[in-house]
Write a structure and sequence with these properties.
The protein is mainly β. The chain contains 2 helices and 10 strands, in the order αββββαββββββ.
C-alpha cells in the first residue's frame, strides 16, 4: 500500500519544478552568413554542430547557464558579414576569416514566460586556432518534459561574432534535470 501511494505521488508531481540543475546535449545545424565558397563568392553555408549546456534554476522562470557550441568543420567567412565593418570597399579589402572548428562558450540568462518556452540572451567567446571573437547570443528553446526528470527540446539561436560574422543555429536536444 505504501508503494502504491509513493508511485502515485511521483506520477502527479511536475517533473521539472523540483530540480535546480540541468545538463543537455543537442545535435544542430549552423547556417553561417557570408561564407566563402570556391574562394570567390559570398554565400550562406551550412555546417553540422553540437551543443553541451549546463543550466541552474534561480526560480521557476529564471535560469543562468553556460552554453557551449562546437562547429564540426573548418570554413571561411567574409570579415564584417554581420554588418560591423561593412563599407564601400571591395571584398579583398574587407578580408576573409579562417575558422578551424570553432568552439563558443556563452554565459546565458534564460527566462521562461510560459512552461514550454525559454527566451535566452548572453555573451561569451568563440575560440578557434586562427583567432578568437566575442560572441553575443540570442535564442529560443521549447522544452517538453518527460518522465524521470528528462526533457527533450528544440532550440534556435542567433550568434553575432563581434567584428567578424553571424550565424543561425537550430537543433534538437535532450536534457537531464537533477
Amino acid at each position: 500500500k505504501h508503494e502504491v501511494n509513493e508511485a502515485h505521488q511521483q506520477s502527479t508531481e511536475p517533473e521539472a519544478h523540483h530540480k535546480k540543475h540541468s545538463l543537455s546535449a543537442s545535435l544542430n545545424h549552423t547556417i553561417i552568413f557570408s561564407g566563402v565558397k570556391n574562394s570567390e563568392k559570398r554565400n550562406s553555408i551550412g555546417v553540422p554542430s553540437f551543443g553541451l549546456n549546463y543550466n541552474y534554476a534561480l526560480s521557476d522562470r529564471w535560469f543562468i547557464g553556460l552554453h557551449n557550441d562546437v562547429i564540426m568543420e573548418d570554413f571561411l567567412v567574409t570579415r564584417g558579414s554581420n554588418g560591423s565593418q561593412r563599407s564601400e570597399s571591395s571584398e579583398e579589402e574587407i578580408g576573409v576569416i579562417e575558422r578551424g572548428r570553432p568552439v563558443s562558450s556563452a554565459l546565458m540568462v534564460v527566462f521562461k514566460p510560459i512552461e514550454k518556452l525559454g527566451i535566452m540572451a548572453g555573451a561569451g567567446r568563440e575560440f578557434s586556432k586562427h583567432e578568437d571573437y566575442t560572441v553575443l547570443r540570442f535564442g529560443l528553446e521549447t522544452p517538453i518534459h518527460l518522465p524521470r526528470h528528462w526533457e527533450v527540446f528544440g532550440a534556435l539561436t542567433y550568434d553575432i561574432m563581434i567584428d567578424a560574422y553571424s550565424s543561425l543555429t537550430y537543433g534538437i536536444g535532450i536534457a537531464k534535470l537533477f
